[in-house]
Amino acid sequence: METATPRTHWSSRWAFILVTAGSAIGLGNIWKFPYMTGTNGGSAFVLVYLLCISCIGVPLLMAETMLGRRGQANPVGTMRRLIAEAGASRAWIAIGFIGILGALIILSFYSVVAGWILEYAARSFAGFASLTREQASANFSALLADPLRLISWHTAFMLLTGWVVASGVTSGIERANKIMMPALFAIIVLLIIYGIVAADMGAALRFMFHFDLGAVRREVVLSAMGHAFFTLSLGMGAIMAYGSYLDRETSITRTAFYVALADTGIALMAGLAIFAIVFAHGLEPASGPGLILQTLPLAFGQMPGGIVVGPLFFILVIFAAWTSSISLMEPFCSFLIERFGLSRRAAVVSMGFAAWLLGIAVALSFNEWSGVKILGLGIFDLLDTLTTKIMMPLAGLLIALFVGWVMHRR
Ligand code: TRP
């Protein structure tokens, strides 16, 4: 049964832009974009990423918002309604299910990585003074080797996420976003200034923007396209769920444009700030998922006022991650609520517990279970590849086909 109660709506179009930007801007921009750029050879990746954002990302962002706004329900309910409206094949319901399942999988590893940031936020209060680059790397490896610490922080982050989703989407999220996002922006600007003054911004610019078409390989294209989906929160029901809290009159074209612009801007700035430090300290750009945690502590340890800027930065990243993880939990929860009549709290507990369990496997894949390989990939890489490189592009393609060919004009 779908519920018949009137649906809550965002307070304004700006509120919607804000929460959608909050969903888009997260670990994807500050953690994932820099390390993916590093492992995929720099500028070639950035070029394809920018093309994918503008040619695929923005149109899909509009399409997905539109589906949600028209369906006025959770991703599965929305698809069911639109399929009935168009008299289309029931198979299109796959869009809804790929979305809610994919979001659950992403949430599981997202929460583990957010846990790393929580640990670093806690450490940053003591400062990172006189840290060498070897120590910075060793510190990160030591964290990965400690399952108990990983799991505790992962649990804490999942509880934070569940708490907001349980208390409803409109109240807390809107307000938190309004303060946190501008503050995050300001700190990243500060880091860029640090990069110019005290690190190697020239090398960072060359690494990211010296476009060389010859360096674009197939693997790079797939990674960049996957990341464009990831960073805009596409294909996984999140935007559809948020779009369903729009009333039917709200216009969405400009919204998508603003969100993509803010999201891309933050990612590029974070990338520049981090690579300036990487090159100034002779670090390895391709060192993988630990990149920001091996570089930023060096900068915070050396810059004047680093003892204040460091904690502030990590706290803001946690908030950015938080406003994203909420949007990963909402699609499945709204499905449970509307389809099975669960209370919001019960839905959060069931969905959160499933994602938490899967997250435990992710946390263990860095230590106790590091030998477990499925299709040649560890658990973390497997879940990341499955969602980012397979489920998201597939869902994106299906959404494009559905909106372009199946749905009727009204
Ligand atoms: N876009 C977020 C980030 O960059 C992550 C995210 C939130 C997401 N919701 C999503 C990714 C839905 C895919 C689908 O950190």
Task: Please outline what is shown here.
The protein has 410 residues and is mostly helical.
Features:
410 residues; binds tryptophan; 16 helices; single chain; mainly alpha
Low-confidence stretches: none
Total number of beta strands: 0
Order of helices and strands: HHHHHHHHHHHHHHHH
| Overall form | globular
Oligomer state of the chains in this structure: single chain
Overall mean confidence score, pLDDT: 91
| Number of contiguous helices | 16
Largest sheet: none
Bound molecule kinds, no repeats: tryptophan
Helix content: over 70%
Structural class: mainly alpha
Query: What portion of residues belong to β-strands?
Result: under 5%
> End-to-end span in angstroms?
26 Å
Integer-rounded radius of gyration: 21 Å
Question: Your description of this structure?
Answer:
The structure is a single chain. By secondary structure, this protein is mainly alpha-helical. Helices cover 76% and strands 0% of the residues. The protein is globular and about 65 Å long. The mean pLDDT is 91.
Detail the topology: elements first, then pairings:
Blueprint: H1 13-24, H2 27-39, H3 43-71, H4 75-86, H5 94-124, H6 133-144, H7 147-166, H8 171-198, H9 201-209, H10 218-231, H11 238-243, H12 253-280, H13 291-302, H14 306-340, H15 344-364, H16 379-406
Helix pairs in contact: 1-8, 1-12, 1-14, 2-10, 2-12, 3-4, 3-9, 3-10, 3-12, 3-16, 4-5, 5-7, 5-14, 5-15, 5-16, 6-13, 7-14, 7-15, 8-12, 8-14, 9-12, 10-16, 13-14, 14-15
Bound molecules: tryptophan (TRP).
